[in-house]
Design brief:
By secondary structure, this protein is of the alpha/beta class. The protein folds into two domains: about 240 residues, Aspartate Aminotransferase, domain 2 (3-Layer(aba) Sandwich), CATH 3.40.640.10; about 120 residues, Aspartate Aminotransferase, domain 1 (Alpha-Beta Complex), CATH 3.90.1150.10. About 45% of the residues lie in helices and about 15% in strands. The strands form five sheets. Strands 4-12-11-10-9-5-6 form a seven-stranded mixed sheet, sandwiched between helices. A four-stranded antiparallel sheet has the order 13-14-17-16. Strands 1-15 form a two-stranded parallel ribbon.
Length: about 425
């Protein structure tokens, strides 16, 4: 384990913040569905001398010399990524998920072209066409929604009607707050009918796809997958674009570099290679399936205790809970309350939410990080009960403090990778 002695000597303020964050992670519960813990090997790789090297270009085609070992680690990352997701091409250079999506748009579209993505209020992502993003000034975005909020069923008939009318060049599957699985085959059929590319943004669920716990969009004919490499995939913070066929991959390479970003962050590329190697091991499959088992167990316990979950459950790692209907508090109030007992999650809008994004009706939470710590279904019931007790006793400061101590004692039973016990 790192000792951080050099940091302690050089910068006490940053060192103290680091120690505080390690303590917070160790003693608390991380339920934000987009967060996770990397292995000690991935963490170690992010702090290596690959940080010192500029590597603009691609393996074998760099703009600077001295690339023998950077070419090596990037090639390893590419080889492992294509094996993991069963595709022909991978670009592992995007610095994050949002830049990966933007680079993808510029690879396939001309200004004014249309993209169809999930409406943010029904679970979509900012980069799928929310008006606050600059990308909407360049491309035209149309949206699809759920047909039935109680089940999470997407309105595929309406999607087809809009696609026939608007002729999108990309039909985009993916989400940031949707607890069910999409029908990729049906989306592919609509795309084929209108001559669109199919793109899946699997940032949240990449680990479960890699581990065989959720369906791989490539198996239903999708052209491209974009993703982050952290979240359920348990790699370093970064992005990646995968192509089912090599020819599309070449277009994407040109769009990522030199079209959209400069040189790759090589210590992160090396860490991606390590994480992909871990994801190819049999034990990763067990982890991927356990994420969903845990989420289903937690969702069921909340519903049995009167909480309203959007779509009445989950098929993946994520739950979206209507706090106003369930507990007569807002999502912001719930987030603050759970922080007080050491449970971290995020406020989130629910479908057609009448409230504002910074003070919404719901909360979003999920199970990847706690699954990495080794928690199982029975532990989900324990965690849910902590949260339900916090809601019940929210006006009793002494009771909340007692709950916080109980949460801390519970968490210390489950080590965080890379943090000393």
């Amino acid at each position: 384990m790192p000792t951080y002695t050099a940091l302690q000597e050089a910068d006490t303020n940053v060192y103290n913040a680091l120690m505080g964050e390690m303590k917070r992670q160790k003693e608390g519960v991380e339920l934000i569905p987009s967060e996770n813990y990397v292995s000690p090997a991935v963490m170690e790789t992010m702090g290596t001398v690959f940080n010192n090297k500029y590597s603009e270009g691609y393996p074998g085609k760099r703009y600077y010399g001295g690339q023998e070992y950077t070419d090596c680690v990037e090639s390893i990352a590419i080889e492992r990524a294509t094996k993991l997701f069963r595709c022909e091409h991978a670009n592992v250079q995007p610095h994050a998920g949002a830049p990966a999506n933007v680079a993808l748009y510029f690879a396939l579209l001309e200004p004014g072209d249309t993209v169809m993505g999930m409406d943010l209020s029904h679970g979509g992502h900012l980069t799928h066409g929310h008006p606050v993003t600059y990308i909407t000034k360049i491309f035209n975005f149309v949206r699809y929604k759920m047909k039935n909020v109680e089940t999470g069923e997407i309105d595929y008939d309406a999607m087809r009607e809009v696609a026939l009318k608007e002729k999108p060049k990309i039909i985009l599957a993916g989400f940031s707050a949707y607890p069910r699985e999409l029908d990729y085959a049906r989306m592919q059929a609509i795309a084929t009918e209108v001559g669109a590319y199919t793109v899946a943004d699997m940032a949240h669920i990449a680990g479960m796809i890699a581990g065989g716990a959720l369906r791989n969009p490539f198996d239903d004919g999708f052209d491209i997958i974009t993703t982050t490499t952290h979240k359920s995939l348990r790699g370093p913070r970064g992005g990646m674009i995968l192509s089912r066929e090599l020819e599309l991959g070449r277009k994407i390479d040109k769009s990522v570099f030199p079209g959209f970003q400069g040189g790759p962050i090589m210590q992160m590329v090396a860490a991606k290679a390590v994480a992909f190697g871990e994801a190819l091991k049999p034990e990763f499959k067990d982890y991927a399936h356990q994420i969903i088992k845990n989420a289903k167990a937690m969702a069921q316990h909340f519903m049995e205790n009167g909480a309203r979950l959007i779509t009445n459950g989950t098929d993946n790692h994520m739950m979206l809970l209507d706090c106003v209907t369930s507990w007569n508090i807002t999502g912001q109030e719930a987030e603050t309350l759970f922080d007080r007992i050491g449970v971290t999650l995020n406020k989130n809008m629910i479908a057609d939410d009448p409230r504002k994004p910074m003070d919404p009706s719901g909360i979003r939470f999920g199970t990847p990080a706690i699954t990495t710590r080794g928690m199982k279904e029975d532990d989900m019931v324990t965690l849910a009960n902590f949260m339900l007790q916090a809601v019940e006793k929210r006006t009793d400061d002494a009771a909340i403090e007692k709950l916080h101590e109980e949460v801390k004692a519970f968490c210390l039973q489950f080590p965080v990778p890379g943090i000393p016990s």
